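We modelled the chain as a single entity of 379 amino acids. Its sequence is:
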Amino acid sequence: MAAVGGLGEVNSVSDLERKLAEINIPWDEIAPAHIYEWLDVYSKSHGTSPELLLAGILPCTSALIGNTTVKLFDSFREKGNLFMLGLAPSGAGKTPACNIGCVRPLISYLEQRIDRSVLVDETSSNGLFNHFVNFQRGAAGECVPVLCIDEGYTFLSKLISTSKSASHTCLTMERMCKLYDGDYWYAVKGSKGKRVGVQSARMSMSTFTTPRRFLTDIWRKVVACRNGLADRVLIMYQDCHQLEIEEMEQCSSDIQQGPLKGLGTVYEHIYTEHNQENPVEYTLTASARELYIKYCKGKTSMSSSVGAFNPECNAKTGKNALRLALNLHVLWHRLDKALNQLAGPTPTAVSESTMNMALTLHDTLLAFGGVAETVRVHF
């Protein structure tokens, strides 16, 4: 029997699952009310939840903004790509969240209009390398792919494999860290030893799996490796809530009668605005910048809505907080314009209000990750 930093007694993985279920996304603190209402109705119309849907939408947004940066100061500019992992029991809506948040609006809508490949489901090292070499660059500049997997256990198992044969064919944890950071990716090929590759290979990731096997088989090994991947991945958990068919039908009707029926047009606007000849650069307002710096130093007066377990922000997780601010700024503005049927560009300065939303969301996702990390010690 063990007590874990504010988690109470933990005797089994089931206890950890219950602790994960006790952490709730404080929607009133991370999204404008009308945007949350749309996410809630749209997700329920397809048998999933706004939490799992967000775990698909944010990585897609982070890929579609391409080479966009947010500037903290002259020598500190952060890119936007995110790695998110949605944990939920069977029947909670992982597959529909992946489909309506990633696969359908990208493949059936956006890619048809831009004639470029954004979504990838290729999890082999060679396959993804070839994707970057063949498709990364185009007339609009760097294209950041997003890896979307609705059942990611096999992919994650291969990721942590230590076999030599797997390391030559599968992505490794070290390569995933490099794909988050946007490092170069080169290989020497052919009899003449020609070097081929790209100067910057960045990727976003949205993958889903069930919590039990992930906690016992995968995550404890990722954390134990201490190679930085655990700090780069944001974990979202959603318990299973059975939706009545009548509620789904009503939500579907509400969506069809509203101004926004899906994410395709939203993604198209995000992509078009951010994949121009010159990369877009966002800045922080003075108050947003002050709040972020205080947050990274642990000196904010923000009240936490995520319960007792609230891990400290560090240099790596602080990057994710800034990336969340960038992506929420773009996504919330574009959803607001779509719902209100407005046109116009996204403002180039991230406000203190949006920064507050991003830091609250970041704290919540850190709390999910903190609970998950206790398996390394106790199981």
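As a brief sanity check on the tokenised model: The chain has one domain: 2-378. The domain at 2-378 is CATH 3.40.50 (Rossmann fold).
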